[in-house]
Every structure is written in structure tokens, then in C-alpha cells.
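User: I'll paste a sequence; please echo it back and then give the predicted structure.

Assistant: Echoing your sequence first, then the prediction.
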Amino acid sequence: MEKARPIESTPALSIVIPSHNGRHFLEACLQSVFLHRPPRTEVIVVDDASKDGTSQWLRSTYRETRLVELPSPSTNSGGFGWGYCRSINAGIKASTAPIVQTLNNDAIVTKDWASEALRLFANPAVGSVAPQIWLLREPGLLDSAGDLYYLFGWAANRGHGLPLYPEVMEEREVFGACGAAGFFRRDALLRAGLFPQHFQAYYDDVDLAFRLRWAGYRCLYTPFSKVYHRLHGTYDHHHPEITYLIARNEERVFWTNLPGKSLRQALLPHLLHVLVKVVGKGLLGRNPSAYLRGKLAVLGEVKEIRGQRKRLRLLAQQASFPIHFPFENDPWMPAKLILHRLWQILSSKEVRYVKSWLGHASVKRDRCVCEDLPHSTLAASSPKNNSELMAEKIPSTEAA
């Protein structure tokens, strides 16, 4: 029989970092985590069938980490390993602390990032906490201030691509936490069913946010927990298979999780939303066929979706707290998306014309076309160097 751990050695926080061929990102990520982690924190790295020597490197360099290794898939996975969801679930199951943070391998944490989030779990109704996430490669721009969900079936990172503004310096309830750096109550995760492994990756955190809410839990956002995120460090978002996954999982979330009344209300706006995106991707040349294929894939999953909706009703019957869905219900958002797509199309054509003209002029001038140098390391594309990021303290509301 295994001996019980002494109380003082029992972890208070488990940080789970999934990684697939991401050793080049892990070094900066782990350096920041071990520099700023609070006492009684365990760090778990899940190696998703990497071929870059991640496991061997961790054993020799970061012996304090708990390593969970997933074997290579026996079937063709398209070169993506088992996928984010299976990896992160393996780490959550291996964790021992009451609070779990899911952290992407291309993220860097800052001073006090964990303590500022952990204090909010004093409220038993809080199932997750969303930190303030900044874009690592675009200085001064936000990646996420919590997840939003629009009633017509579109999830968005609150504040993405925007500079700091007053609303994101206030603690408030949001729909869900971004899986790139979200904090979760472990018991709530187990009760809700963890991340959806059949999703593989993308929209998985939105699906989980829905199930946590069906179980009665709330999600709070705090601006005093700060994380930097490189974004798209593992997967190529121009790959048709990634476009397919995003489109398919977006539909799965919509048809599976919305309450019946909300689903009926959102049906027509949702179809308009899908039409706008299909047309926009077609005009921009961004894998429209893969996107449409993903949308249509759910037609073969009707039986499974019905079963999942029944399980959500059972989850709701056992909820310990009142169920609440803070949907965004901007009636003009579909029109805004249409205008945004048109702007993308016009901007894309203008950029291509300018690049073509500049390239032609350069060739005429000195027979040499300048190219962007590749960024081979994480530090090369950071808004600040890693040591500055790791030493940075969260700004107070007054300072912002």
C-alpha cells in the first residue's frame, strides 16, 4: 500500500504542459515556470510522441518535472501525434493538486501569475480562472482576456489583437478560460469530463467551458495574472487539416452544448455566419473546401450529438450551483464579420500588390530581393528578452 504524502509536500498547483515536437519552445517556458512557481507546485510535461528528443532532454535538464510519455499513434495521425486533448488529459489524470493549470509549451509566465489566479478559487462556485494573456511576438497586443461565446456559434478571445483598454483591467466573469494558460479546479474537470479527446485540438476549451457551466461552475478573469503566448507554435494554421479541425469542432460545440431555446434562437444567425466564412475563405484562398468539409462532417454525428446532449441534462441535474450562460448577443456581429471579411480581402490584395511592386523595384535596382530572416528561436521574436519577461511584475490597475 502506498504511503500517504506528508501534508506539507502535497502540491497545491499542478501545471500541465503538453508538447509535440516542441523542445525549442519548452526551454523558455520551463525556465519561466521554475523561476516564478509558488511553493508546492508540481510541473508535468506530457510528451506527445515527439521525435525531437524532448523526453531525453527533460530527463537530463529538468529532472524536477514529472514526465508523461505518450507512445507514437499506431494509426496515421497526420503528423500531429495524439493531439492536444489526449495529451492534456493524460497530464490532468497524472496531477495531484486541487488546481490545475493547462499551459502551452510556447507560453512564458511572469511573477505572481499563479498566486493571483489561485486566490479566486476561494469561491467554491469558481471552476476556472482566465489570466491575462499577451501576444509574445506582437508587443503591446493582447491574446486573450478570457473567452467569449456569441450566440450564433462563434467563440472569440476577448481583446485579441488589441492594446490594453480599461475593461480588461477589471476582474469579471467571462464565458471560459483559454486552454493555452487556463486554471481549473481539478474536481470540476473530472466531473465535467475533461477535454474532449475526439476533438483532437481546437475549440476543445470552449466545449469544456460549456460543460463546466452545465455543471454550475463559473469562470472568472483576472488581469493580475499575466502570461505571454507565442501563438500557433505547434500547429500550422494554414494546413488544410487544421482548417478542417477548427470548422468541425466549431459545429460540434454549437449543436452539442447550446440550451434548446438558445439553439432555436441562434439557428438562422449561425447559418449566416457559416455562409460568410465559407465565402470569405474562398475569396482569400484559405482552404474553403477543407472548411466546408469540416462543417458538413457533423451531419454524420447526429446520434452522438444527441447522446451528448442527454449527458449534459444529467450533468445539469447534479449541478451544485445555479447554471448560467453569459452569451454575447450582439445582433450586429454577423454584419461586422462580413465587413471584416471584405476588409481582409481588400487588404490582402493591396498587400500582395505592394509586395509585388517592391520586389520588382528591388530587382530592377540591384538584382536582389530582400527576404525576411527566419526567427529560429523564441527569444528572437519576443517583445522583450526572456529575462525581462520573467522578472516583470503584473501592473496594477492604477498604473494601467
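Residues 1-8, 350-388, 390-400 have pLDDT under 50 and may be disordered. The radius of gyration is 22 Å.
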